[in-house]
Design a protein that fits this description.
This protein is mostly helical and about 425 residues long. It contains 17 helices and five strands. Helix 7 (about 150-165) packs parallel to helix 9 (about 210-220), helix 11 crosses helix 16 and helix 15 (about 360-370) runs parallel beside helix 16.
């Protein structure tokens, strides 16, 4: 079956309390079965509904998607994701105004004919899912963070498709203070193999909150768009999945809830950055994927302060957007914190050289974890090369216990996908 019912900084006390109140404001339940008697009085006799989780990225989206995919246990709610944990890539293939840029064509070398067949099959699957939601008066949950940056015409195309099934749409999105988002994106970029010291995202429109919010509201209606501030310190047990389940009345067992992976400390990120600069990356194989993921897990054991970007790096990106704060604060019911301009510059990363400035404690930890000799400090380049060599050993010398756990998790994901198609 394609559908399944068992289906992822501020210290100011006043802002913190305001955030708690904002996150826990009572919200009318959305995931309820439509009342047929009520709908019979409506001209269009709508039944069920679609809940569109529109991102934004870097706000616990993967944790929400994994949790709903593996653990949603609500007979009135269906989670649909085209046989994957999320609907992002397939919705983009169906409704993008420029499908020629789709990674299936650009990276996997699919022929136009194969891609067209894929689109046709995906469209049939989505229509079947919508039809089931309509006929059973159920709620259908779609999660695709790329909806946050879709053009208005693309969102309209998605809405027209859903409207044809006579289903109302409720949009749910989380927004994150932009300086936090930039720091999280930069760290994720390095973790995924990035090598450049590039702070600004490739698509600047992701940070144009006023435009993003306006697009969603104009297409779906302001009353149908729910925005929440992404502030984990204010969430139940610091977990965005628990917040979603509370506010949307979703039944996901605690043991099935996935948490957003903890970010690397700044000392760990420095080691990883040196590794990216000096060791060619191996991609594609299952073994390389496992080693990459387990390397990040091992580096996460190195404690230290978090990455903070210097105001001089953040200002060129965020200064032109500062006049949007009033709108974001009004829509999220929170005095939206943008505190990057008041940070202590002494502890911020200002240049690439700052990312290659290793403390003695991190070098000692690395040599011990990799079981290699101590590093002899020389020029910056020489020290970084030695760091990279030891991180490579750390990557290839994975403890057997971690390898077994990774394979067990991969098997569980595979069995979930098989179960969805039985």
């Amino acid at each position: 079956m394609l559908l399944k019912n068992n289906i992822s900084n501020t210290s100011d006390a006043e802002v913190h309390q305001c955030c708690i109140r904002a996150c826990l404001l009572p919200i009318s339940p959305l995931l309820t079965v439509a009342n047929p008697a009520t709908h019979s009085r409506l001209e269009n006799s709508m039944a069920g509904e679609v809940i569109l989780h529109a991102g934004m990225s870097r706000t616990g989206t993967s944790a929400i998607q994994e949790s709903l995919y593996s653990g949603l246990n609500n007979p009135e709610t269906l989670y649909f994701s085209f046989d994957e944990t999320k609907a992002t890539a397939t919705l983009n293939a169906l409704f993008s105004s420029d499908p020629s840029d789709d990674p299936r064509l650009r990276l996997l070398g699919w022929s136009p004919e194969r891609f067209t067949d894929f689109q046709r099959t995906a469209e049939q699957k989505l229509w079947h899912a919508l039809s089931v939601a309509t006929s059973t008066h159920s709620s259908l949950y779609l999660s695709a963070e790329n909806c946050w940056v879709m053009q208005q015409s693309e969102l309209q195309a998605l809405k027209r498709f859903i409207d044809a099934a006579r289903l109302p749409i409720r949009v749910v999105a989380y927004v994150r203070p932009r300086h936090d988002w930039l720091e999280s994106r930069f760290q994720d970029y390095i973790a995924r193999g990035g090598r450049n010291f590039r702070v600004a995202p490739q698509r600047m429109d992701v940070l144009n909150y006023a435009e993003r919010i306006q697009n969603l509201e104009q297409v779906f209606g302001k009353s149908q768009v729910d925005l929440f501030p992404y502030a984990p310190q204010c969430f139940p047990n610091n977990c965005v999945v628990r917040l979603l389940c509370q506010t949307r009345e979703l039944d996901v067992p605690i043991e099935a809830m996935r948490r957003t992976p903890a970010s690397l400390s700044l000392p760990a990120l420095r080691l990883l950055y040196a590794y990216r600069q000096h060791i060619p990356q191996r991609r594609g194989s299952k073994s390389a994927l496992m080693q990459d993921q387990l390397l990040l897990k091992r580096l996460s054991a190195l404690s230290g302060p978090q990455l903070r970007l210097h105001p001089s790096l953040v200002a060129p990106v965020l200064d032109p957007l500062q006049d949007q704060l009033a709108l974001v604060s009004e829509r999220t019911r929170l005095n939206f914190p943008e505190t990057w301009h008041s940070r202590d510059e002494q502890f911020c990363v200002q240049s690439e050289q700052d990312l290659l400035n290793f403390c003695d404690q991190s070098l000692d930890w690395l040599c011990q974890a990799s079981r290699m000799p101590q590093i002899r400090r020389g020029t910056g380049e020489q020290t970084a090369q030695q760091v990279a060599e030891r991180v490579e050993k750390l990557r290839t010398r994975i403890p057997l216990s971690l390898t077994i756990q990774w394979n067990l998790d991969a098997t569980k994901r595979f069995l979930r996908r098989v179960a969805q198609n039985v």
